[in-house]
Write a structure and sequence with these properties.
It is found in: Cell inner membrane. This protein is α/β, with parallel strands linked by helices. It has twelve helices and nine strands. The chain has a domain of 213 residues: Glycerol-3-phosphate (1)-acyltransferase (3-Layer(aba) Sandwich), CATH 3.40.1130.
Length: 328
């Protein structure tokens, strides 16, 4: 059964599934068909190196590599330009190109920052955040045991955002493991360092999320990924039709959870990150899935407009169209 079909079934009928065990092992002993042991060690070494380099230096390097992405023809640059042209039609061609180049630089910076999120002890990761706005409301809702749904779009550094926003809160995120077992072990260890519980992207995982909300815990969702056929509806996003997941909408209709949306904005001159959290658009609680999905996208769009150059525009968000036409 496909993931989205499982989700729809489970919203109506809970599965008696237990929570998956999290391991913090980072041993690269297992062979992988997609990434050699040597390749994994190189990647791990790179992450460890970038974890100790100053943010300002990483962003300087990211600016240079991002410039190369902008001038050398490649798929990421083409998708970025297409998305920006569609979502910001009021900008001139020069302004769209400037935003695209800034976005490509941000894309590289995000990759270079992952050492700070994945390798440093949790205290070091949390220390990357130097400014906070709006988080108190989320913390109060979590403390009251109301159940919280946190929308974390691919904006700024979503890894650092997740760790900071969920600090001290019982939290659960869906997790689809990579094919490489060594990288899977690394990422599980990364999540475990902050106490975040992982739920598989299947029927069992949805049951875990439902149970977490009923216990008044936090459930984290990445709201801007294109779902499978049964798991989404079309809704407006920056004036374009975007196939949007209904999982969040269905979760929001179970009990009385509070829904928030936020991100970690990259600050200039390597001064760290500013965590920004907003209460999501009230339309999310609408029982009509289309209206709820539109509210989710409005919540994401509100965040993106605060730092459009830091959004993941290289992702093919509009690859599914209502008339099956080719957007890209």
């Amino acid at each position: 059964m496909r993931q989205s079909a499982c989700i729809n079934t489970l919203i109506r009928r809970r599965d008696n599934a237990s929570e998956p065990k999290i391991t913090d092992s980072i041993s690269p002993k297992e062979a992988s068909p997609t990434l050699s042991r040597l390749g994994f060690l190189v990647a791990l070494g790179f992450l460890r190196l970038t974890s100790v380099l100053p943010l300002r230096l990483l962003h300087w390097i990211g600016g240079g590599l991002g410039w190369l992405f902008a001038v050398i023809p490649n798929r990421s640059a083409a998708t970025t330009r297409r998305n920006i042209a569609a979502c910001f039609p009021a900008l001139s061609s020069a302004e769209q190109e400037s935003l695209a180049r800034q976005s490509l630089k941000g894309m590289v910076c995000t990759g270079l920052e992952m050492g700070k999120a994945w390798i440093l002890p949790i205290e070091g990761t949390l220390a990357q955040v130097t400014e906070v706005e709006g988080l108190a409301a989320l913390q109060a809702a979590a403390k009251a045991g109301e159940g919280v749904i946190l929308l974390a779009p691919h904006l700024g550094n979503w890894e650092i955002f997740g760790y900071f926003a969920c600090e001290g809160i019982a939290s659960n995120f869906m997790y689809q493991p990579p094919k490489n077992p060594q990288m899977d072990a690394l990422l599980r260890g990364v999540r475990a360092k902050s106490g975040i519980q992982l739920a598989p992207t299947n029927r069992k995982g949805v049951a875990i999320l439902l149970g977490a909300l009923q216990k008044g815990e936090l459930v984290g969702v990445l709201p801007d990924q294109v779902p499978t056929d049964e798991g989404g509806v079309y809704a407006d996003f920056f004036g374009e039709s975007a196939f949007t997941m209904t999982l969040t909408s269905r979760l929001a209709q179970r009990g009385t959870p509070r829904v928030f949306c936020g991100f970690a904005q990259r600050l200039p001159k390597g001064k760290g990150f500013k965590v920004i959290v907003h209460e999501a658009d009230a339309g999310i609680y609408d029982k009509d899935l289309g209206a709820s999905a539109a509210a989710i996208n409005r919540s994401v769009e509100r965040c993106v407009r605060l730092a459009p150059e830091q959004y993941q525009w290289e992702y093919k968000r509009f690859r599914r169209q209502p008339d099956d036409s080719a957007f890209y």
